[in-house]
Design a protein that fits this description.
Layout: H1 12-29, H2 44-68, H3 73-90, H4 97-115, H5 123-133, H6 137-141, H7 157-160, H8 171-202, H9 210-224, H10 240-268, E1 281-282, H11 284-287, E2 297-298, H12 302-310, H13 313-335, H14 348-392, H15 413-439, H16 444-472, H17 481-489, H18 509-518, H19 523-549, H20 560-577, H21 593-612, H22 617-626, H23 632-653, H24 655-689
Helix pairs in contact: 2-3, 2-4, 2-19, 2-20, 2-24, 3-4, 3-24, 4-9, 4-19, 5-19, 8-15, 8-16, 8-18, 8-19, 9-10, 9-18, 9-24, 10-24, 12-23, 12-24, 13-22, 13-23, 14-16, 14-21, 23-24
Length: 695
C-alpha cells in the first residue's frame, strides 16, 4: 500500500481498477490450482470402461431418448466411475486422478453421441431421424421429401420398410456420418486445445465452471483413499467427499420430487402427478398487456440456483441486469415498430424466436463483435505488458508468463493451424463433390459461404465462446446464421442443408481442457482416448440403432416421445429447408446492418464506461449474457442463487472456503439428479416393454 503514495505510482482510480480486476479474476482462478506434475490417464481401465459403456449404456441411452426424450449421460458418467472405483477397491488398488478423469471423459463422449446433445442427433440416432424425416408428412407437405439426396438417406419405401441399416443403399449415408464424426472429433479436440492455450495460458481467464467436474472427480479420488488429505484437499477444512455426498443426497431428494414422481406416475397413470412445475412456468401471455414482446417465465429447478452460486457473482448480477434491460427495451422496440412479428398471446418460445428474427439476430452479431474487440485489446495489452516485464527482468532464467507447464502434453501451435486448414479443406472439398453429384454442377456462392464460415465466422464465434466460458461460464450463440447465409446465397434446392459445412463452435472445449489440467491429466491421454473412442462410438451407436429399429417403426407406439415430438421437429426443419426452394422467407429481413452497428457501438461503449469506472469485468460479460442470450426462466433462479451464496454462505464460511465447497456440492448434486433420473426412467422402460395381452 505504501507504493500507492509514491510519485511514480499510477493515479488512484487507475490503480484500483487494475487491482480490482486482477483480484476478481484471481478469486476464481485460484480456487483450484493445477498440480505440479501431470500423469498419463490412458490405460486398460479406460479401454474396458469404453467397452462397458458402449455395450451396456449406449443402447439404454438411445432407447431412453426415443422413449422419454431424456438423456442418461450424467448418470452414466458417475455410475461408471463409482462402479470402476468399487471394483478397484476390492482389488486393493487405487485408480489415479488422471485415469479417473479419462474414464469420465470417455463415458461423457459416448453418452453425448448416443443420446444427442443440445437437440442435435449424432451417429445411430441421426440415421433413425433421417429415415423418419424423409417419410414425414411435414417434408411431403413442404415438397422437399423427394428432393433429399440419397447420400443423406435412402428414399425408396421398399428399403425403409425393411428397417435395416445393413443394406447397400445405406452405404453412402453411413459413409457421410462416419466422415463427419471422425473429422469433427479430431478438429474439435485440436482447435479446442488451441483456444484453451489462448484464453487460459495467455489471457489467464478463470473458467468458473471448470472446477465443478474436476472437484467431483477429486472427491471420488479422496474417498477411495480413505479420506486422506491430498495436496489440494482440506487446506481450508473442506472434505471433498463429504461435500460431494451432501450434494448427491440433495440431488436425489430434489430429483425424486422434480423428475421422479412425474415420471413414475406418468408411467402408471393416465396423467402424471407433478409437484413442481417443469420445465418452467410461462407468464408471457399473462404479462403481454404490461410488457409486450418480452419473454417472461420462471423455472423451479434447484440446479439453476446452485449454478448461480458456482458462477461469478458479478456475472450473475450482470445477467440479471441484462434481463431487466431486455424487459424494458422490448416493449419500446415493439411500440416503435421494430419487433413487428410478435402478437399478443404468443408463448415464451414464440416471443423469443420472433425477437431474434426481428432484432436480436443482428444486434447479437454487433455485441459479439464488441466482445471480439475487447478480447483482442486484452491480448495486445497483456502482450505489451509481458514484453515490458521481460525487458526489465534481470534474471535470464525466469520463465515467461506464457510458458507451457512442463509435462502437460502440449503440442506446437503450427499443428493447430495445420489441423484447422486440413479439416476446412476436407469439409469444403466433400461438400463441393456432393453438390456436383446432386446438381450436376457446383453453385459457387455456396462455396463462398463455406469459406466465410471456415475463415471468418467459425474462428470468430469459437473465440467469443471461449472468452464467455472463461469469464461467465456461458456459450455465445448467434441464431440463424446458417439459415440467413444459405438463403441469401440464392441456392435453389435442399441439398445444401445436409452438407458437412465448416460451421462449428469449438469454444466449449476450453472448459474441458481446463478440467483436464486441474486434475493433472496429460492432454495426450485424451487424444489417445479419441483414437480408441471413434470406432467404439461408430460401431456401437450404429449397431444398436439398427437393433432398436428392428423392434418397430420409429416413431411408433413403442417410442412415445419420438412419436409425439419428431413430427414437430420435422415441421420446423421443413419450414427452414423449404426456404431455398424459392419465394419470400422471413430470414431475408433478419440481417440488418443498422442493428449490427447498434450492437457494436453499445457493446464497445459499455466496455469503455465500465472499464473507466473500474467495474468488475464479470459484470459486462454478464450483461451481454442477459441481453436475450439466455431465457429468463434460467436467469432469475441463477441470480437468486448468486445472492444467497454471496449474502449468506460466503459470510458464514468465508469467501475462499465457500469457493472450494460449492463446485464439489454442485458436482454431487448433478450426480444425484442423474441417478434418480435413470432410476425413475426404468419405470417408463418397463412399461414400454410390457406386452398388452388380449385377455
Amino acid at each position: 500500500m505504501s507504493d500507492s503514495t509514491s510519485n511514480t505510482s499510477p493515479p488512484p482510480k487507475k490503480l484500483r481498477k487494475e487491482r480490482g480486476v486482477d483480484k476478481e479474476f484471481e478469486i476464481f482462478r485460484d480456487q483450484m490450482r493445477p498440480p505440479k506434475h501431470f500423469d498419463e490417464g490412458f490405460s486398460w481401465e479406460s479401454f474396458f470402461g469404453a467397452l462397458f459403456i458402449g455395450a451396456v449404456m449406449v443402447p439404454g441411452a438411445i432407447y431412453m431418448t426415443l422413449l422419454a426424450g431424456e438423456s442418461i449421460g450424467p448418470a452414466a458418467q458417475w455410475v461408471t466411475l463409482i462402479l470402476f472405483l468399487e471394483v478397484a477397491r476390492r482389488a486393493n488398488r487405487d485408480i489415479p486422478n488422471a485415469q479417473i478423469f479419462t474414464l469420465f471423459y470417455i463415458s461423457g463422449a459416448l453418452m453425448a453421441t448416443a443420446s444427442g446433445s443440445g437437440g442435435d442427433f449424432h451417429g445411430g440416432l441421426q440415421t433413425l431421424y433421417n429415415q423418419f424425416f424423409v417419410q414425414s408428412d411435414a417434408a411431403r407437405a413442404a415438397g422437399i421429401a423427394d428432393q433429399i439426396p440419397s447420400w443423406v438417406v435412402p428414399s425408396d419405401p421398399a428399403v425403409l420398410e425393411t428397417r435395416s441399416l445393413f443394406r447397400i443403399e445405406w452405404l453412402a449415408p453411413l459413409g457421410l456420418i462416419v466422415f463427419t464424426m471422425i473429422l469433427g472429433r479430431i478438429d474439435s479436440m485440436i482447435i479446442g486445445y488451441g483456444l484453451f492455450r489462448l484464453t487460459s495460458d495467455i489471457e489467464k481467464l478463470p473458467f468458473p465452471l471448470a472446477p465443478v467436474g474436476a472437484q467431483g472427480i477429486l472427491a471420488l479420488s479422496e474417498e477411495q483413499k480413505g479420506h486422506e488429505i491430498s495436496e489440494d484437499s482440506n487446506r481450508e477444512g473442506v472434505s471433498k467427499w463429504r461435500m460431494f455426498s451432501i450434494g448427491s443426497v440433495i440431488g436425489l431428494i430434489f430429483g425424486f420430487l422434480y423428475l421422479g414422481i412425474p415420471t413414475i406416475t406418468g408411467a402408471l397413470l393416465a396423467e402424471p402427478i407433478t409437484l413442481i412445475p417443469l420445465p418452467f412456468v410461462d407468464f408471457t401471455p399473462d404479462t403481454a398487456a404490461y410488457i409486450p414482446a418480452a419473454a417472461v417465465g420462471l423455472a423451479f429447478d434447484l440446479g439453476f440456483v446452485i449454478v448461480g452460486m458456482v458462477l461469478p457473482f458479478w456475472a450473475m448480477v450482470g445477467s440479471f441486469l441484462g434481463l431487466l434491460i431486455t424487459l424494458i427495451l422490448n416493449p419500446i422496440l415493439y411500440h416503435t415498430g421494430v419487433l413487428t412479428s410478435w402478437n399478443p398471446g404468443d408463448s415464451l418460445q414464440e416471443t423469443f424466436y420472433k425477437g431474434n428474427i426481428d432484432f436480436y439476430f443482428s444486434f447479437s452479431i454487433g455485441i459479439a463483435l464488441s466482445i471480439a474487440i475487447a478480447g483482442i485489446v486484452s491480448i495486445v495489452l497483456k502482450t505489451r505488458k509481458e514484453k515490458a516485464r521481460k525487458a526489465k527482468d534481470e534474471n535470464p532464467l525466469s520463465r515467461s508468463a506464457y510458458a507451457i507447464p512442463e509435462g502437460r502434453g502440449d503440442i506446437r501451435a503450427i499443428w493447430v493451424f495445420a489441423t484447422y486448414l486440413i479439416a476446412c479443406s476436407l469439409y469444403i472439398g466433400v461438400s463441393m463433390f456432393l453438390l456436383y453429384v446432386t446438381d450436376g454442377s457446383i453453385f459457387w456462392p455456396v462455396v463462398w459461404v463455406m469459406l466465410f464460415y471456415a475463415f471468418v465466422f467459425t474462428p470468430f464465434i469459437s473465440y467469443m465462446t471461449a472468452r464467455m466460458e472463461g469469464i461467465a461460464g456461458q456459450v455465445v450463440t448467434i441464431p440463424f446464421v446458417r439459415e440467413a447465409c444459405f438463403i441469401l446465397s440464392g441456392y435453389s434446392g435442399v441439398a445444401v442443408w445436409f452438407l458437412p459445412i465448416p460451421l462449428h463452435n469449438y469454444g466449449q472445449m476450453t472448459v474441458f481442457y481446463r478440467q483436464c489440467e486441474l486434475t493433472g491429466t496429460k492432454f495426450t491421454s485424451i487424444w489417445k482416448s479419441e483414437v480408441l473412442l471413434m470406432p467404439i462410438i461408430l460401431g456401437f451407436s450404429l449397431f444398436f440403432a439398427h437393433m432398436i429399429w428392428q423392434m418397430g417403426d420409429i416413431p411408433g407406439p413403442n417410442f412415445p416421445f419420438a412419436q409425439e415430438w419428431w413430427e414437430v421437429t420435422a415441421a420446423q426443419k421443413s419450414l427452414i429447408f423449404s426456404s431455398t426452394m424459392g419465394g419470400f422467407t422471413e430470414f431475408e429481413q433478419a440481417l440488418n446492418p443498422a442493428y449490427i452497428g447498434w450492437g457494436l457501438g453499445l457493446g464497445c461503449l459499455a466496455f469503455g464506461v465500465m472499464g473507466y469506472f473500474a467495474l468488475p469485468v464479470f459484470l459486462i460479460y454478464g450483461v451481454v449474457r442477459g441481453l436475450n442470450q439466455t431465457l429468463p426462466f434460467m436467469v432469475i433462479p441463477q441470480f437468486l442463487g448468486a445472492m444467497i451464496g454471496r449474502l449468506y454462505f460466503q459470510r458464514k464460511f468465508g469467501a475462499k472456503k465457500w469457493r472450494q465447497m460449492i463446485p464439489v456440492l454442485f458436482a454431487g448434486f448433478s450426480c444425484g439428479m442423474g441417478l434418480i433420473a435413470v432410476f425413475t426412467l426404468g419405470f417408463v422402460f418397463l412399461k414400454g416393454s410390457v406386452l398388452t395381452l388380449p385377455f
